[in-house]
Amino acid sequence: MWLAGFFYGHWPWSIQTLTRAREALRLARLEARIVNVPLGHPGDSLGARDGDFPLTPPANWRLGSSRDGRPYAGTSLHAPATEENAKALRRLRRAGFSQFFLDDDFRLARGPGEIGGCFCAEHRARFLRRAGLPDSRWPELLDDLRSRRFTPLLRQWVEFVCDDLTGSFRAQQKAAGGKLGIMVMYLGAEKAGIRLADYWDVPFRVGELMFDDRAFSPVKGKTDELFSVLFHRRFAAPESAWSETTAYPADRLSAGHLAAKLVMSTVADVRHTMFMSGVTPFPKTHWATLGAEIQRQAGFHRRLAGHRLHGPFKHYWGEASRYTGDDRPFSLFLAVGVPFEVTDRPAREGWTFLSDADATAATEGKLLSGGTRLVSRSTAGAATGVLEPCEETLAALFALKHRIRPTLGKVPFVENDEPALLAWYPSARAALLWNLRSEPTTFLVRCGAQSREVRLTGLESALLPNLHL
């Protein structure tokens, strides 16, 4: 059970209250751990029922400054934020707590898709001094940021911002005795100050976004969320990876949708699940559904853990997306029933689906194919001979599936045109089939000359054994 610790300069509950809660949990045979909210969210992201709950840092913490000079609270780093967070962690350690997570406000961008950093006079002067640049280059940087041009100057800024956040983490990690994890927002990466390679060896909660039924219900909502999970798993060992599995507000994500998020952890080999809902619990009635699905997915996961995804469709999120992109992934290919795999560079074969930022990099010759077909939305301005345009619609992607069917050989795939995910693990001789719709659906899964019919209820998944080359 994760207790609420130090929140951006405040102690919502005293150390004495936290230790009493820990004792009550111990008697219930539960371990108490701590979540700190280190910088503050840009708004009420806690779901607090108490109107007196503090939503912004105290007056002695400085506000951030946007590119146009407007102040904002949270997700910016000034003294004394690091010092006070480290002091709080040392205090919690002395009280006997030993495992901590930093909530996903530990970033330097206010939201997904934003190229972050604080643009106050202090940060401006420190950046220019460190980079050895004259003041005259500052307007050039601002123009690069506005246009999302991935220039050497923009890279310098992003690395400067990442250095600040990593430095703060290392100071807090030392204060925590090393047992400190980081929660990462949806597609969180370098442009938010999160240099992902810096967190490989710490507990790492993968970033999700679809926290209510309205966002999670569409097929695209599910594939976008899974895309983020798969991307972050490139930078986290499975033993260190945690799911976000969040409902917010607490009662806005149905039990069935919250349980469906567990399938993503199975597919991506995320070994730990963390249910969250701000500081208000989701309805107790959810647990009847969640308990059964936890057991079901645990059984699937035991069979698939440690095995690698394999398939002709390629999941790729490149440097351009990580530094300058708008966090709109081309993700719907995950829903057409063709197996896929995650790559950290363009593959040597198959079809690799690019975001607009990565498509631009390919068109400019900054991203080269290793043999894979690079596919992008037509709106990305695809250059003939470099990118293959494809609308991000189920109809267009089903048509692509039918065109490439003769090349699939003994690779399994879903033959009918129903939105489904087919995660294939050849070394486990198995695949996981997930119905991405809320309606019961019958799927025909073909593998070479063989086929099998699988009937799934809404959002249900099933393990299909004996699927191999």
Structure description:
The protein contains 12 helices and 19 strands. It has 2 domains: 2-304, TIM Barrel (Alpha-Beta Barrel), CATH 3.20.20; 313-465, Immunoglobulin-like. A 6-stranded parallel beta sheet has the order 1-2-5-6-7-8, covered by helices on one side. It has a 5-stranded parallel beta sheet with strand order 10-9-11-12-13. It has helices at 15-27, 81-94, 121-131, 138-147, 152-175, 213-216, 219-233, 255-268, 286-304, 319-324, 356-363, 394-404, and strands at residues 2-7, 33-37, 64-65, 71-72, 100-102, 180-183, 204-205, 241-242, 313-315, 340-342, 351-353, 373-376, 388-389, 413-414, 420-425, 430-435, 441-447, 450-456, 461-465. It is 32% helix and 16% strand. The radius of gyration is 23 Å and the shape is globular. It is α/β, with parallel strands linked by helices and 469 residues long.
Main β-sheet, in a few words?
A: 6 strands, parallel
Oligomerization state of this entry?
single chain
pLDDT averaged residue by residue: 95
CATH topology of the largest domain: TIM Barrel
CATH architecture of the largest domain: Alpha-Beta Barrel
For the largest beta sheet, what order do the strands appear in spatially?
Answer: 1-2-5-6-7-8
**Which term fits the overall shape?**
globular
Number of strands: 19
Please work out how many helical segments DSSP would assign.
12
CATH class of the largest domain: Alpha Beta
What's the structural domain tally?
2
Unreliable stretches covering 5 or more consecutive residues = none
| Structural class by SSE content | alpha/beta
Spatial extent as radius of gyration: 23 Å
Give the strand content. Answer: 15-25%
Quote the distance from N terminus to C terminus: 43 Å
Q: What is the share of helical residues?
A: 25-40%
